[in-house]
Amino acid sequence: MGLTAEGVLDFSVGSNPFPPPPGVREALNTVAINYYPDSEAAELRQCLSEKLGVTLDNILAGNGAVELIRLLALTYFGRGDSILILEPTFGEFEVACQIAGAEVIKQWAKEEESFAPRLEETVNLIRQRRPRGVFICNPNNPTGQYLSRRGVETILDTLRDGLFILDEAYIAFVDGSWSSIGLISRGNVVIVRSMTKDYALAGLRLGYAIANQGIIDALRRVHPPWNVNIMAQKAGVIALGDTDYLERCKQEIRQAKQFLISELCRIGFTLVPSSTNFFLVRVGDAKAFRTALLRHGILVRDCTSFGLPEYVRIAPRTMPECQKLITTIQSLKQEGKLDARAFIKHS
User: Fold this and answer.
1) Is there a contact between 309 and 295 (Cβ–Cβ < 8 Å)?
2) Which DSSP letter does residue 163 get?
3) Residue 26: CB partners within 8 Å, gap ≥ 6?
4) What residues does CATH 3.40.640.10 cover in the chain?
């Protein structure tokens, strides 16, 4: 299309759209890249320990959340194991299980219920199939659904000693979230989080797992040495030291999200309620909608790969950029270049 990456407004990723915390870029210029990074990521883990209220032995740093998800599957799952995944959700859960040779059991949420988790069905599936593990993304990607503490504990009580992996990559963007940290005392819970989403560090790749010492020790024996590079470790330490950064960003993201929701509803789209920063929009033909916007230098997430070919996922950016998105969509609709099926419910 003759576009450059720098010239595209990217609404397709759920990361913080604002620059990283002040001081990160400057600090990276002082990093001695001729030395190996600390394979234990001790300083970063110490900062996380103080922030989360857990010990160093409860934390493992990773090269993004995806590395940790694959490490968990390789360490704990294998041929003959069945793993329950609540769909639609992050595709890397299934990929990790396939790499480990495990069988995947999928429980699909219903569109007419806004893709809300169906807990009674989940409990019955666990009782019937006795999976070796369960992956749950909370808040879920791409639906934005957020399970309550009671819902998570209901699943845990039914699972008993199976491994429960709670992916909280987008938890920082949830208003009124509950703390899952105490769940690690059960002994079979692993919480996976990303620092690339919160702190705008996607290019550096940085995440961490929280679990009891036994699980962390097992993962440490499997993970590659020096898996978190020296620049990512430094950036993470600086980011964690800026205690006001996330709240400053969240205020602006919240405002931009509300603007997009109001305007898209006014235009005539159906949206799925979301507890996090991104949300689903029913557009008819997601691939065609994405292509039409990309011709104008705007990128949204075609959710066909999630099994949702009629939906796109949109994450807010700055207000001027959000205004440009709405103006472009309005123009495309007026020109008849959008799928009419997206507006049937509002005609």
Assistant:
1) no
2) E
3) none
4) 24-241
CA distance 206 to 193: 9
Burial tier of 258 (Cβ tally within 10 Å: 0-12, 13-18, 19+): exposed
Rounded Cα gap, residues 162 and 131, in angstroms? 7
Q: Counting Cβ atoms within 10 Å, is residue 347 exposed (0-12), middle (13-18) or buried (19+)?
A: exposed
Are the C-beta atoms of 338 and 346 separated by less than 8 Å?
A: no
pLDDT at 345: 55
**Coil, strand, or helix at residue 66?**
helix
Q: What is the mean pLDDT of residues 7-16?
A: 94
Q: Provide the pairing of β-strand 301-302 with 133-137.
A: unpaired
* 208-237 pLDDT per residue, tens: 999 999 999 999 999 999 999 999 999 999
CATH 3.90.1150.10 location in the chain: 5-17+245-346
CATH entry, 24-241, from 3.90.180.10, 3.40.50.880, 3.40.640.10, 3.40.50.300: 3.40.640.10
Strand pairing report for 301-302 and 298-299: unpaired
- CATH T-level topology, domain 5-17+245-346: Aspartate Aminotransferase, domain 1 (3.90.1150)
Rounded to whole angstroms, the Cα distance separating 221 from 27 reads 31
Taking the C-alpha atoms of residue 72 and residue 209, their distance in angstroms, rounded to an integer, is 10
Amino acid at 244: D
Strands 189-194 and 207-210: antiparallel
- Helical spans, DSSP H, in 118-244: 119-129, 149-159, 195-199, 213-222, 230-241
pTM: 0.95
DSSP 272: E
Q: What tens digit of pLDDT does each residue of 235-289 get?
A: 999 999 999 999 999 999 999 999 999 999 999 999 999 999 999 999 999 999 9
What DSSP string runs through 134-154?
EEEESS-TTT-----HHHHHH
